[in-house]
Structure formats: structure tokens, C-alpha cells
Amino acid sequence: MSHATAEDDRPYVFDPATALGWKNIGLDGLGCFLRSVEAVLLHQGYGAADVARGLAAPLDLVRRGEWYGPMSEFPACTARWYLSDIGEGRSQWPRVAELVTSGTPVVLMPDGHHWPGDDHEGKEHYHHHMVLAHRLDAEGLHLLDTDAPADGGHRRILPVDDALRSSCTRYAVLERIDPPGGRRPGEPATALVRPSLVPLAEDIAELRAFHGEVWSGARLPLLLAKGMDVWVLGDVQPQLFLLGHALAESDDPRVAEVSRASLAAAARAQKVGLLLLGLHRFRSEGVYAMAHEEIAVLADACEELLAAMCRYAGVERLRVTGDGLRLVQRLRGEAQWCFGEGRPLPDLSFD
């Protein structure tokens, strides 16, 4: 990506007034990773609508493939990840420092064991949060952090010490950033709706099977529950949210219907994710039964979206079946990615 120059001294910001759909918290629609990506795009001259059209892609809610990190391939840019083993973060710090000093912001996914103020500081080597590192000077490393106080602009400055260096086990750099304004409001529907029909139908079948056959609402291991909130808030909500906003300015009433249904489904996903986040504090496997029925409600909202998409495309609703196992694999994979601490997790069960 292009580096900052003396002529371009605009700061990197988390600003709800200019961000996409940020009403109350940074998790309104997007998670900590995509808020960091958005801040880079806004700095490049994007508006909120440009961000939606630049990041929205055909739906793949229960993502296919073996990559369990964040969605990283977008129409407008690519996030390239650099990963090291647990305990090897210090080896990545020189490159992180070089990038930030030269004007290239870096998305950090730090090792919580070393990260100041993390709930797992000094304990587990969990990777469960992301921040945007955008400046390095005598004060320290300047960050944008959705968890930092809003009255301080969601900013933090961390001193460069052994803990910070050791935390840098994972980072990403945005590449291939398209110039803003290259996608007109009417363009995304064709690219987004039809390619979403089959994956969305299959993913709804997975959700329904997961709710009805795999997880009865019984006790849920803590790390599986954490993997579920990562999936809901990191995959499901943002995909639905971005698609809804990418289609929001269309003059076609059928596209407008898809947009409304997608945003409604995104709101249901946010409710599931925030409920799970709230339940984590009790550290009780039995408490997650409260979230069980919300999975069915989310599937219903996705069904409404699929119906609107089918009306736009002029096709019958595709009838497919699922067994919930692909979703189980996704949840276990995301739990492993965030909470595996460099070794395989135990055989976590939904029974």
C-alpha cells in the first residue's frame, strides 16, 4: 500500500461520525479487525459507502476452506498475514516497527499473554482481539483500539518494552488497495446476490441442523462458546452488514428489499454475539443454553434474506439439507485459531 507522506498528514481515526454504521459500539456491524481495515480505507479517501462496496463479497457465512483467521480477501484490498509461533513474537517486532515508522499501518492480533490490560495477560496465550498500529515515536506505539475509551478517541499508546515486542505473534498489512469511488451504487447487486444464493441456502441448512440436531442447548465448553462468538461477530454479522450497506443506495426496490433483509439479519447476528460475550463472564458451561434459541432466530432472519434474494434473481428457493458438521468444524477451527495456544485443543463436544 502507499505510505503516508508529508503532504498527507490526515490521522488514522476511529470516528463513529464517519465510520460505517457505528452507532453505539465498535461492534456495530463490524468487528475489531474490519474496523481497523475500515480506518485504513477511510484514511485513503474512502467514504462509508465506498467502504461497504469495497469490502462486501458474496455470502459465505459458514466459510468454506481451511483458513480460520479473519476474512482477508476483499474486492478493494487484501490483508496479508504474517504469523509466528507462540513465544516468537519478538522476532516479528523489527518488521512491525519498520512498517509503522515508514507510514504503513499494521493490524496487530497480539498474544494476550503479553498484551497490557488483556484479560489473559500473564496467563493464557490467547489471540482474541485486534488493533491498528499506525505510528511509532518516542512516546511509544500508537494504536486505534475498539476497546479503548471512546472519550479518548479509542486511542492507546503503549511503551515499546519486552512485553509489546513479545506480543507481536500475528500481524497483517493491507495490500492492493483500490482507489476510492471505483464502484457505483448500482453495481454490487449483480456481483453479490446471485453468487450468494447457493452458499446461503446451504449455510441456513447448517444453522438449522446445528440448532436442532447437534447442539441441544446443553452445557457448552467455554472455548467452543468463545469460538462461536468469534464466528458470529467476525464472520456472520460483518458479511450481512456489508452486503446490506453495499446495496442500500440502489433505486431498484427488489435490491432495497435485499438490503433491508440483510441488515435485519446482521442485527440478529449481533444480538447472538453480544449475548455470548456477556455470558462468558459467568464462566459456566450451562449458561450458554440462553443463546440456543437465538441460533434459530438468526436462521429465520437469514431465511428472509434468502427469500428476498430469490425474488430479486427470479428463481425458486433452493432446497438443500445439512447435518451441522461443517459449522462444527468451522467453530472448532476458529476456537483453535484464537485459543489454541500453539497446540491442539482437546476434543471439544457439543453434547
Quick recap of the structure?
The chain has 351 residues and is of the alpha+beta class. The protein contains nine helices and six strands. The protein has two domains: 32-45 and 78-175, Cathepsin B, Chain A (Alpha-Beta Complex); 188-339, no CATH class.
Q: How would you describe this structure to a colleague?
A:
- The chain is built from 9 helices and 6 strands.
- It is an alpha+beta fold.
- A 6-stranded antiparallel β-sheet has the order 1-6-2-3-4-5.
- Residues 1-7 have low confidence and may be disordered.
Number of strands: 6
Question: What does the radius of gyration come to?
Answer: 20 Å
**How many helix segments?**
9
- Sheet-strand content, in percent, reads 5-15%
Largest sheet, strands/sense/barrel: 6 strands, antiparallel
Question: Which residue ranges are poorly predicted, with pLDDT under 50 across at least 5 consecutive positions?
Answer: 1-7
- Global mean pLDDT: 94
Summarize the helix and strand pattern as letters. HHEHEEEEHEHHHHH
> Please, how many domains?
2
Class from helix and strand fractions: alpha+beta
Secondary structure layout:
Blueprint lengths: L31 H12 L4 H8 L22 E6 L9 H9 L4 E3 L22 E7 L2 E5 L10 E4 L3 H6 L2 E6 L12 H27 L7 H25 L6 H28 L11 H22 L11 H15 L12
Antiparallel strand pairs: 1-6, 2-3, 2-6, 3-4, 4-5
Features:
about 45% helix; single chain; alpha+beta; globular; about 350 residues; Cathepsin B, Chain A; 9 helices
